[in-house]
Design brief:
Blueprint lengths: L5 E4 L10 E5 L7 H4 L10 E5 L3 E2 L5 E2 L15 H22 L6 E6 L1 H12 L6 E5 L14 H4 L3 E7 L7 H13 L3 E7 L7 H14 L4
Parallel strand pairs: 2-3, 2-6, 6-7, 7-8, 8-9
Antiparallel strand pairs: 1-3, 4-5
């Protein structure tokens, strides 16, 4: 299995077993995108920003191929998405061994395609994650578990954001994802912002507050 390249930012405060925050970028981007604001999140985290494994011909990387002419059900390649999720799980194990992080205290921060994988990872392997920030993404049914055990996912907590004028992923897909979490009794905060496919200042500020409420600065 291919090893994923990544950027790393170590916590500023020396502490055993630091919480891991894993960044997963969007389609056509790379590990430097979300990592550009890593030092603004929380000093306690060991931050890892991973690069997707699939090279795009025009530059950038992807977690899986996208068919932009298709409908939602086949918008992405589920087999490739599942392969990428396996690579991410392997990366988490490598980071745990090297930096003594606690897997059950892992935070996922994904944008777009990275957010889609964050849903898939956390709900297929809830024991490995704690908090999930899903920015401008949606729940891709083909990579979701067939059944949800409410007791196994009760600890998961989601921050969901989406732009009201998102030109890439329709806002209806995000709204349906929020309703899906609600229907399964999962903790979540869903907020819409007057923005396109991105992260505006209000969204960023809310994200920082949400993280700080769960990881108070020491």
């Amino acid at each position: 299995m291919k090893n994923l390249h990544y950027n790393i930012l170590k916590p500023k405060s020396e502490a055993a077993n630091p919480p891991l925050l894993l960044m997963l970028h969007g389609y056509g981007s790379d590990e430097n995108d979300l990592f550009s604001f890593a030092d603004l999140l929380n000093d306690r985290f060991l931050v890892i920003s991973a690069r997707a494994p699939r090279n795009l011909s025009w530059g950038g990387y992807a977690w899986y191929d996208i068919d932009f002419t298709s409908n939602q059900s086949r918008f992405g390649n589920p087999e490739q998405a599942e392969e990428s999720m396996e690579m991410i799980l392997q990366l988490i194990l490598e980071i745990q061994e090297k930096y003594q992080t606690v897997i059950s205290n892992t935070v996922l921060l994904g944008f777009s395609q990275g957010a889609i994988l964050s849903y898939g990872l956390s709900l297929n392997h809830p024991e490995k994650f704690k908090n999930i920030l899903a920015l401008s993404g949606y729940i891709f049914n083909d990579i979701m578990p067939k059944t949800i055990n409410s007791s196994e996912v009760a600890h998961l907590d989601f921050f969901q954001s989406h732009g009201t004028i998102d030109e890439v992923i329709p806002i209806d897909w995000a709204r349906k994802s929020s309703e899906w979490l609600k229907s399964h009794g999962l903790k979540h905060q869903y907020t819409e912002y007057p923005m396109g496919h991105g992260i505006n200042q209000d969204c960023f500020n809310d994200m920082i507050k949400w993280i700080a409420a769960r990881y108070p600065i020491l």
